[in-house]
Amino acid sequence: MTVLAGIGFTAPWVLMGLLTLPILWLILRAVPPAPIRRLFPAVTLLLGLRDDESVSDRTPWWLLLLRMLAAAAIIIGLAGPVLNPSRDQAGSGPLLLVLDASWAGATRWSTTLDQINVQLTEAGRAGRTVAILRLTEPEAPVFQAAEAWRGRLPGLTPTPWQPTRAQVDMALAAMGQVDGGFDTHWFSDRLTYEGHEAILSALRARGDVTVYQAPSPAVAILPATYQDGVIQLSAQRAEPGPADRITILAQGRDPAGAMRVLQSAEMEFASGETQAQVELSLPSELRARITRFEIQGERSAGAVTLTDDSLRRREVALIAGLLNREGLELLSPLHYLTQVLTPTADFVDGGLLEVLPANPDVIVLADVAKLAGSEQAALVEWVEQGGLLLRFAGPRMAASDLGRDTEDTLLPVRLRSGGRSVGGAMSWGEAKGLAPFPENSPFYGLKVPEDVTVTTQVMAQPDPNLADRVIASLSDGTPLVTRKALGLGQVVLFHVTADAEWSSLPLSGLFVEMLDRLAVSSAAKSRQESQLQGTTWEPIQVMDGFGVLSDAGNLPGVNGVELVTGQIGPDLRPGLYESGKKKLARNVLTDETVLSPAVWSSDVPIKGQEVSTETPIGGILLSLALLLLTIDVIASLALSGRLGLARAAAVALGAILLVPEVQAQTPESTDFALSATQELVLAHVLTGDQQVDEIAAAGMRGLAQTLFFRTSVEPAEPIGVDLERDELAFFPLLYWPISPDQPQPSAEAYAKLNAYLRSGGMILFDTRDADVARFGAASPNGRKLQQIAAPLNIPSLEPVPRDHVLTRAFYLLQDFPGRYAGTEVWVEAAPMDAEQIEGMPFRNLNDNVTPVVIGGNDWGAAWAIDRNGQALLPVGRGYAGERQRELANRFGVNLVMHVLTGNYKSDQVHVPALLDRLGQ
Amino acid sequence: MNAALTLRERSEAEASRLPPLLARAEQLAGTVLLGDHGRRRAGLGDDFWQYRPAQIGDSRRMIDHRRSARGDQQFVREREWQIAQSVMLWVDQGASMRFASDKNLSTKADRARLLGLATAILLVRGGERVGLTGTTLPPRRGNAQVIRLAEAWSEDAESDYAPPEHRAMIPHARAVFISDFLGPLDEVELALTKAADRGVRGLVLQVLDPGEETFPYRGRTIFESVGGSVRHETLKAGDLRERYLERLAKRKDALTRLCRATGWQLGLHHTDDSAQAALLWLYRALDGGTG
Questions:
Q1: What would the pLDDT profile of A806-861 be if each residue is shown by its tens digit?
Q2: What confidence tens digit (pLDDT) does each residue in A743-770 have?
Q3: Is any Cβ of chain B less than 8 angstroms from the Cβ of A667?
Q4: Which of A597-601, A782-786, A897-901 has maximum average pLDDT?
Q5: How confident is the model at residue A698 (pLDDT cuts 50, 70, 90)?
Q6: Which residue among A33, A39, A45 places its CB closest to the CB of B182?
Q7: Which end of chain B has the least Cβ crowding within 10 Å, N or C?
Q8: Is A56 at the interface with chain B, CB within 8 A?
Q9: Residue A58: is its pLDDT beyond 70?
Q10: Mean pLDDT score across all residues of chain A
Q11: Mutation for testing the A interface, residue in B220, B239, B250 having most A CBs under 10 Å
Q12: CATH classification of A95-217+597-613 is 3.40.50.410, yes or no?
């Protein structure tokens, strides 16, 4: 490539063409503009007139200049000019591009890719073969043409981990397989890791190594911790540098469910420091909403830390059976619970019915035997919605008949009367210790201290399902803690008291851990190894190198200890993990992580990643030439007097150049809304089939007229609705004739239709084929209906039952003929528990208007009238046919009445009158 | 035929705005062909006027025997003295007339025919006899003649500049020549002098396009006659303007002089002017012979 004045030319010889420009100037100057032919009857008077000078009008100098510029632009454009041409670099032979490709380089990944692109271009120009090796996902390097790699560049993404020792070994092995030497360009993320030196020495053994470093070191955020009412955030940078200020964004879902920045905090790195801290004090409601903290402007997994239960404080309602022993705090059955939960949970105070609307996470009932009926019902409902009910036994429960004969809904097991007492002064046995927790127990892995003894407990009846419900038992096998699922929630019963009267359990640390495992207290301490022993965590969402969360898919579960202490790698990805009801976040950085900068020996050349992209400007010049020539055409036309032509050309040019104006739609849609809402309007869906649409419009008109004459419903002229364009909410009823070749509505149209159905609209689907195929796929209209209705939110259907309100909304009807008669019409199915009322022929049916009515009787055609009010299409024959049309009209009236008045006619108030008319 | 119909329709519309034109008989007996223009007194004519008793001096041949046989007295049948003017029209059908410098303007031919036919209708309504110069359509009266005129004028001539038709001129009749008079002037001169020789007097209406009056052209141009027979190329049309206008003025002068010499009246009409004005001029000139 030849470089002239900072612009490179791929074909510099073409520039010689510029020498012809002066000649072109002379030629163009000499050639007069082409003559115009004009009709002119008075030419006889002109005959014999001579021109004063033999030279015609010259082409004006500016037009010549325009043409010269166009010619020059073409010549230069064809010479292949390139802005910022990259200078050729020395080097030959195979080239290996080594990428760290870890999260630390994710923020500047696009720059890295640009740089690689430049390298590939240069290598391609020099005819070098290239291989790319990513240390975080090592594969055996394959040297191939540079162009072959270019298409694969977008597939290279950074991983959320640093190269692990295993990967470094794999990379070394892969390099070992390559024969011969090669040069290396190493794109480093400026962080060191285990095996960094080994790779460098292995590469230097094969050839020259050049290191390309990101311009700035990586910044990462450590996991947030919650202590003493504040969230502590700290960030790290790999290399100490000048004072710097970063912003931390706390993101979470707002009450509407949308992700947004809930809080932001500034954090300052002091000069020469690598650590920075900030404290964030937030109300607990806001704190619970935070799902992630991230460093503003950084786009890497290291700049994101996910939060889990550790920031969240559970809301617990403590309710004791009787609190009449005023002043005896230590004897309160709730004392130990309060002590255990205070650091990690918020309490909701009040009676049971007062706390339920606050929807606490946990309700603790300590020795509560009897609940009022309403309390019981409310509590059951709350548990079924996902609440955790934690019950403790006690003297009152033991004395009551609770769960004696049948299992109480809010008890996991049946209880024997009286309970038992062991190890007391009056008993034979020793106080019992705890048995080790079974594997299926949530307490599995907790160490059982020797000194926990139980002296008194309530006993479970040995029911068949008892074994499944025991999650902790005494050394003699009697249940200590039982649990059962109830709806989405669960009920847990400690068979001992919440205070130390029956056992020493509340005095031990095990009690705290047990409550923790039950997710009663928060997971603040759940990161301790002992807590995680024996648990398996299932990934829900994992992060990629850019810090973007995505669904975990079917990644395998991870051992709890490994999850907290293991090194992030392909087998342990950062993200959100779940076990039972508890959530745990694994972040790229842990509290112990220290970022250390990569160190290079002094003889390794290090380059920055500044990229000057080559910009070919040939296309711009050629476009310019085209534009100049276009102007030349118009100017020439104007000069030679063909103004009309010139004006047309200018208009055409304007049409090409100008961006078409965006149509303002507001007035149109307002007009539509006005016309649709000023009066009641019946609407039909435009199918695109003109004949079908015309008949549907005529049918709607006919129905409107019938309604006008017979009822107080006085609809205006019907409207054809374009599903894609028009708002549907204005219409109580949509008549939708099915034609086999109508287009499938778009996703937006379906969203509109579903919203319409949800908000009380009704669609009358009409397959217009007499339902010959019984909605099977045999009829094209039926097939189309199935296709159209599939994405719609349609409830289960049934043929119109004889007591459906459609049969008596205005007229008493038993069948619903249109142009065809006798086929079934389908409406929303009645609920299963609809009961026939004593002495009435009607059931208490669904409270809503049926969202769809589906049939094939071609009602539109039966209702259709022309402008003169005459029926448009024949129905049946003779009198019977007219009767059928009348019934079709009555069906239409009933349908509109049903839509407009809902289940009014289902009201039992009118039953006697209806019965009287029915003659029953 | 459609073109003829529309032409007639528009001409009727033009003519309806003027009172019927009664051509003034300039020369009475001998000069005017007998026609059915009753003078309300006995004289030469075809139509019956009255019977009168035969008087001394009446030749016997004049006695009407059918009337006289009813009684003893002898009657002479007198005829009404009838006179009608014959007006001969010539409208240039040459290709040069089919020109309009702007698409909003009507062509000269269109305007000329309109004026010609409107005049014809006025004359017919006044009872005059109208025809074309030459032998194709001798003067007749009645609405049918108007239709024939319209038909005759709906045919375009091939040649660029049609010479005025001067054959078969009826002596002492009147004539109307409508043309742009851009063709050879000799022909016009010949026609007018020949007409003057026969005692025919009349009107010359020159119809010009505004483009021909102003010559608004510039640049390298090839001017072509409408028929394509004559062309002139110039490198700078703008420079020709002065000289062209000079020549046009000369042409008008020559025409004026010619008319003065032959006793004809000369009118100038531009296609961007109202046709009504031109018709009014024609009407007055024909009616009064003084305009």
A1: 888 888 888 888 888 877 888 887 766 666 655 555 665 555 678 888 888 888 88
A2: 888 888 888 888 888 777 888 888 888 7
A3: no
A4: A897-901
A5: very high
A6: A45
A7: N
A8: yes
A9: no
A10: 80
A11: B220
A12: yes
Return the pLDDT at A618.
80
Contact A764, A696 (CB under 8 A): no
- In CATH, the number for domain A316-521 is 3.40.50.880
A449 alpha-carbon distance from chain centroid: 47
The DSSP symbol for A327 reads T
Would you call B232 an interface residue with chain A, using a CB distance cutoff of 8 Å? Answer: yes
Please check whether residue A644 touches B, CB under 8 A. Answer: no
pLDDT, tens digit, for every residue of A257-312?
A: 788 888 888 888 888 888 888 888 877 667 777 888 888 888 888 888 888 776 76
Name the β-bridge partners of A454. Answer: A432, A503
Residue extent(s) of CATH 3.40.50.12140 domains in chain A: 668-918
Looking at the structure, give the CATH architecture of the domain made up of residues A668-918: 3-Layer(aba) Sandwich (3.40)
Which residues in chain A are contacts of B219 at CB distance < 8 A? Answer: 33, 35-36, 57, 639-641
Q: Tell me whether residues A51 and B243 touch, CB distance under 8 A.
A: no
Using an 8 Å CB-CB cutoff, list chain A residues near B234. 46, 49, 51
**Residue of A31, A40, A639 best to disrupt the B interface, most CBs of B under 10 A:** A40
CATH of the domain spanning A220-311: 2.60.40
Within chain B, all domains assigned CATH 3.40.50 are found at 2-29+85-288
Domain with CATH 3.40.50.410 in chain A: 95-217+597-613
pLDDT digit string (tens) for B150-159?
A: 778 777 777 8
Question: Looking at CA atoms only, how far is residue A42 from chain B in angstroms?
Answer: 6
Pick from B218, B224, B243: CB nearest A40 = B224
A642 contacts in chain B (CB < 8 Å): none
Kindly tell me if the per-residue pLDDT of A33 is higher than 70: no
> Does B251 contact chain A (CB < 8 Å)?
yes
Give B2-29+85-288's CATH code, choosing from 1.25.40, 3.30.70, 1.10.10, 3.40.50: 3.40.50
Reported pTM: 0.41
Of the candidates A34, A40, A51, the beta carbon closest to that of B236 is on: A51
Is the ipTM, as predicted for this complex, more than 0.85?
Answer: no
The contacts found for B141-147 with CB under 8 angstroms, 24 or more apart, are B141/B35, B141/B36, B141/B84, B145/B120, B146/B8, B146/B11, B146/B117, B146/B120, B146/B121, B147/B4, B147/B8
- Asked if A38 reaches chain B (Cβ–Cβ under 8 Å), the answer is yes
- Portions of chain A given CATH number 2.60.40: 220-311
Please give the distance of CA A399 from its chain centroid, rounded to a whole number. 54
CA dist B212 and A819 (Å) reads 75
Q: Which of residues 122-181 of B touch A (CB under 8 A)?
A: 160-161, 180
Which residue of chain B is at minimal alpha-carbon distance from A39?
B224
Contact residues for B244 (Cβ-Cβ < 8 A; gap 6+) = A42, A45, A46, A49, B215
Cα-to-chain-centroid distance, residue A687: 33
Query: Strand ranges (DSSP E) for chain B?
Result: 38-42, 48-53, 75-82, 86-91, 129-132, 174-179, 201-208, 221-224, 231-234, 265-270
Nearest chain A residue to B216 by CA distance is A641
Q: Which residues contact B97 (CB under 8 A, 6 or more apart)?
A: A41, B107, B108, B109, B112, B179, B180, B207
Which amino acid is it at B68? S
CB nearest B221 (choices: A35, A41, A49): A35
Instruction: Determine the residue among A31, A36, A38, A44 to mutate to test chain B binding: the one whose Cβ has the most chain B Cβ atoms within 10 Å.
Output: A44
Q: Would you say A139 and A174 are in contact if contact means Cβ atoms under 8 Å apart? A: yes
Please choose, from the candidates B177, B213, B178, the residue with its C-alpha nearest in 3D space to the C-alpha of residue B195: B177
